[in-house]
Design brief:
Blueprint: H1 3-17, E1 26-27, H2 29-36, H3 40-53, E2 56-59, E3 63-66, H4 71-95, H5 100-116, H6 121-138, H7 144-156, H8 166-184, H9 188-217
């Protein structure tokens, strides 16, 4: 993949994950090429890659749109995340390979972002991704980071941190700190339990927001 395609892919992926392009939004090659200052070919190639990630649907004669997921799909995604990320946390703790100083710095940065702005959800989302990715890499499983990157991206189409209330945000941050303590203690059972609870909390936040939106839209 050339540099231009990579640039377009990274930009469009970020805009999808932060909600600039929402579920069901059309992604038209011409306007996107104009916006990004490139030709249509890199946009087309980037959209194909995003389709492979599960973030974009490609329909013949209709083009591309941001994928929408049914509630049952999201339930399956969060179940898979809890299973795989719980395993990653346990392995990271047992192996003692995680950079705990880096994890603590990411915790500090997330909490500072939340305290510093009214809506820092996009920044927190990016820092949270770095936190989880560091744990995945520390599991010393070559396949796990790439598998989880795709699964987490699909879940983030619902922009989890946008949907947290104040108590849920505080709980998520506290669980990050507890994860670091469990990993530092090299207690795999503890780390797996905290990660599983952490992801079940995220699942609840998405479910709650979805149910509230359905209620508001019901005549």
């Amino acid at each position: 993949m050339n540099d231009t395609v990579s640039m377009v892919y990274d930009q469009l992926r970020r805009q999808i994950l932060t909600g600039e392009f929402g579920e069901g939004d059309r992604l038209r090659e011409g306007p996107l090429a104009d916006l990004l200052g490139t030709s249509r070919t890199p946009v087309r190639d980037a959209l194909r890659r995003l389709h492979g990630d599960g973030l974009v649907e490609l329909t013949p004669n209709r083009g591309a749109r941001v994928t929408g997921y049914a509630q049952s799909d999201l339930d399956d995604i969060f179940e898979l995340r809890a299973l795989l990320e719980g395993f990653a946390a346990r392995r990271a703790a047992e192996l003692g390979t995680a950079d705990t100083a880096h994890l603590i710095a990411l915790c500090d940065a997330m909490e500072a972002a939340a305290a510093g702005r009214i809506d820092a959800s996009d920044e927190i989302t990016q820092l949270n991704l770095q936190f989880h990715s560091a744990i995945h890499r520390a599991s010393d499983n070559a396949l796990l980071p790439s598998i989880l990157d795709g699964v987490i991206a699909i879940a983030l189409v619902r922009h989890t941190f946008h949907q947290y209330d104040e108590a849920e945000t505080a709980r998520s941050f506290a669980q990050h700190r507890e994860l670091v303590r469990a990993i530092s203690a090299r207690d795999g059972v503890w780390a797996e339990a905290v990660m599983t609870a952490h992801l079940r909390g995220a699942h609840f936040a998405v479910d709650r927001e979805t149910n509230e939106t359905i209620t508001e839209d019901t005549p």
